[in-house]
Design a protein that fits this description.
The protein has 539 residues and is α/β, with parallel strands linked by helices. The protein has 4 domains: 170 residues, P-loop containing nucleotide triphosphate hydrolases (Rossmann fold); 61 residues, Helicase, Ruva Protein, domain 3 (Orthogonal Bundle); 130 residues, Up-down Bundle (Zinc Finger, Delta Prime, domain 3), CATH 1.20.272; 97 residues, DnaA, N-terminal domain (GMP Synthetase, Chain A, domain 3, 2-Layer Sandwich). The chain is 52% helix and 9% strand. It has 26 helices and 9 strands. β7 and β8 form a beta hairpin. The protein is elongated, with a radius of gyration of 35 Å.
């Protein structure tokens, strides 16, 4: 008779439990020293090993010959528990047996000594489903049970348990299992079952399981039904998920406002019988990773990606501002809720949302307006707006600009223009006045530089940075020594930090280093500084 993989490969010893060493080490110590508690509470998400550890613990408290804190698995007690023939180990599902009468039966039974084992063990799964009356009936027995009784409670929703129950148990919190641990276990099972599992496919299955070992093994069994090499393509087809490249192509199409590509992606998911909800959840996860990259300085610690995936998603994240990513996340979240409603046309919801993500002017929400304003601020600071040449040469409207009226410069005789004492135009004084605007994010660039060179960052903290109309960055230092130090040892590092902050490559010839001279701020400089100060105070 066929047995499901997750049951066939369920751990039988504490050492075989993956990813919960902080729990199994304590339970092994208690087994070695025989210092068992009267009540245990196992809480955590599904598939992380709560019921498995409960069954191993039931064998450990009754094992006749423990081995290093693990049940031996060969004594009469262990074999009876494994086969389900042990009447002294009772498993109860509180989801279907949640009445007060069920708990009263347990309360009446605990007074009797075990019939064959050393201890009577009660495993109550999904204990949070018990009624209030059932909890009250269990309370006193749980606090002072007979010496031969051990209670093991398991739940996925700890917050639903009364504090009086939690305080009477030895509590263990089961964590989500790491991707590496899941990959290792899946590879081991595949080898034992004679399956060919590619490493990338194993990582995909681990990610889809979201930290649950049971879900990961069940997905492996689903893919094994094809009886062929399990590749990423097989995983996508079996699970109905879309691959990493599809997510990257979708985000790239949003950044490029490529509507044909977006409609093509949705059409491909629908035609391949894929689940749009799964595709949408993967897209939200992709945006979450981009938001982490844009918000933190150590994104690799919070991402579960390969080096190639990290490099690719970092490049894509650089094409969006943080405000834009937040706006897109809100649209994706709203669309997910809309798709989950009954009779929802998922394809239409997905397509409309992707179109709105491409054009922020189609939405008047606060997030959309914030994203648009942020882009305008960057354009102003980086010199994205310039006066047209025709407008610069156009004379100021007045009496002398009427049709047929000579301009003042034209009316003056040529000799007067070059009269003694008059300034003769030269290449130096004929050049237009350089317009400088304070560089927004200068201190952020200095902090980035400080991560690699603290001394150079200390020189730059006393400097001021501006952008010119030609797209260059001018850094003015308080002394020639500071400028020479940065120019000699760290000009390239400073340029890299500025490029990362400005989200665009700054050519070497566009980085200008000067010594500060007396500089009078223009009216535009003062206005921009006042606006930035008000924005900082409002934040």
């Amino acid at each position: 008779m066929h047995q499901a993989f997750y049951r066939k490969w369920r751990p039988q010893r504490f050492d075989d439990v993956c990813g919960q060493e902080h729990i199994t080490s304590v339970l092994k110590y208690e087994t070695e020293h025989g210092s068992f508690s009267h009540a245990y509470l196992f809480c955590g998400s599904r598939g992380t090993g709560k019921t498995t550890c409960a069954k191993i613990l039931a064998k450990a408290v009754n094992c006749e010959n423990t081995e290093g804190g693990n049940p031996c698995g060969v004594c009469a007690s262990c074999r009876a528990i494994d086969s389900g023939a042990a009447t002294d180990v009772l498993e109860m599902d509180a989801a279907s047996n949640n009445g007060v009468d069920n708990i009263r039966d347990i309360r009446d039974e605990v007074v009797y000594a075990p019939s064959a084992l050393k201890k009577r063990v009660y495993i109550i799964d999904e204990v949070h489903m018990l009624s209030v009356s059932a909890f009250n009936a269990l309370l006193k027995t749980l606090e002072e049970p007979p010496a031969h009784v051990v209670f093991i409670l398991a739940t996925t929703e700890l917050h639903k348990l009364p504090a009086t129950i939690v305080s009477r148990c030895q509590r263990f919190d089961f964590r989500r299992i790491s991707t590496d641990a899941l990959v290792g276990r899946l590879s081991y099972i595949a080898g034992q079952e004679g399956l060919e599992l590619e490493p990338e496919a194993a990582r995909m299955l681990a990610k889809l399981a979201q930290g649950g070992m049971r879900d990961a093994i069940s997905l492996l069994e689903l893919c094994a039904g094809t009886r062929q090499t399990i590749t990423p393509a097989v995983v996508n087809e079996a699970v109905g998920a879309t691959g990493w490249e599809t997510m990257a192509d979708t985000v790239r199409a949003v950044a490029d406002q490529n509507y044909d590509a977006l409609f093509g992606v949705v059409d491909e998911v629908v035609r391949s019988s894929g689940d749009l909800l799964v595709f949408w959840q993967n897209l939200i996860s992709f945006y979450r990773d981009m938001l982490v990259i844009r918000s933190t300085s150590h994104a690799a610690s919070y991402l579960d990606l390969t080096d190639a995936e990290t490099e690719q998603i970092t490049a894509l994240a650089g094409r969006f501002r943080k405000e834009t990513l937040l706006y897109h996340c809100r649209l994706l979240e709203d669309a997910l809720f809309a798709m989950q409603k009954a009779n929802a046309v998922k394809r239409m919801v997905a397509e409309l949302t992707l179109v709105r993500m491409c054009d922020e002017s189609l939405n008047t929400s606060g997030e959309a307006l914030l994203s648009r304003v942020a882009k305008l601020e960057d354009a102003v600071v980086l010199g994205g707006f310039s006066k047209p040449a025709a407008a610069q040469e156009q004379p100021t409207p007045g009496a002398d600009s009427l049709p047929g009226a000579p301009r003042e410069a034209d009316a003056a005789p040529a000799a007067d223009r070059h009269a003694p004492g008059a300034a003769v135009p030269t290449a130096e004084n004929a050049a237009p006045r350089r317009v400088l605007r304070p560089l927004r994010g200068w201190m952020e660039a200095v902090e980035r530089l400080g991560q690699s060179d603290v001394m150079l960052a200390s020189f730059c903290r006393q400097a001021e940075a501006y952008t010119t109309g030609e797209g260059a960055v001018l850094v003015r230092f308080s002394s020639g020594f500071a400028r020479d130090m940065v120019s000699k040892d760290g000009g390239e590092r400073l340029r890299a930090a500025l490029s990362a902050t400005m989200k665009q490559e700054l050519p070497a010839e566009k980085l200008l280093l000067e010594v500060s001279m007396q500089h009078t701020s223009s009216a535009m400089d003062e206005i921009i500084e006042a606006v930035e100060e008000d924005m900082n105070q409002s934040e």
